[in-house]
Amino acid sequence: MHFNEKLRTFAYKNVPPISEDEIKSDRQGGSGRDEEYWTSAKSKVILSAMRRLRFRSSGDEFNAHEKRSAQWESQLSQLMRELASWVPSDEKSEEDYFHQKSVIYSALINSIPADNQYDGLRDEALRDFANLLSTSQLQKEKPGEWFLHAKILIDMATTGKSPERDKLIRLIYNSSSRVLHLYVQKDTLLKSLH
Fold this sequence. Notes:
Layout: H1 2-5, H2 20-23, H3 41-54, H4 70-85, H5 94-111, H6 119-135, H7 138-141, H8 143-159, H9 164-174, H10 178-193
Helix pairs in contact: 3-4, 3-5, 5-6, 5-8, 6-8, 6-9, 8-9, 8-10
């Protein structure tokens, strides 16, 4: 009814108000899922490890200098091992697994400095994230949900800085995802036209 009371006054005068019948849903009952993430034993361990990697006990993010410490590198390696051993059967569904793992990869990639010290681990995280996206059934079953996570990698491959951008483009071309391929090809084609 907000439209009828407020927004309609800004619209053209001939726009009729929304009726009560138009507001009602044709379906009875809800079909949406209201899942809570980070409740399985494995996801709790990984989320906790991700928090320790990003934040000091005070709640502030680690700075670039602090990320050069042996302790931070050790925590990063431990998190990478935990991620490698995380499998879909650890979660209620493969969809829950995909969403949670994608969130962790995004946070992880944003946390790992893009410098020579962590090149190998950052490359590994990017490769594993691309592999997760490429092999997920959500790409076909729920493309909108899949794309929310895929866009992170696509944006890095199309707007990032070289040499990482070049590595990502090769990584995407070597993946089995035609959708990822098309987005990178589209961007390459558009850049060549300008």
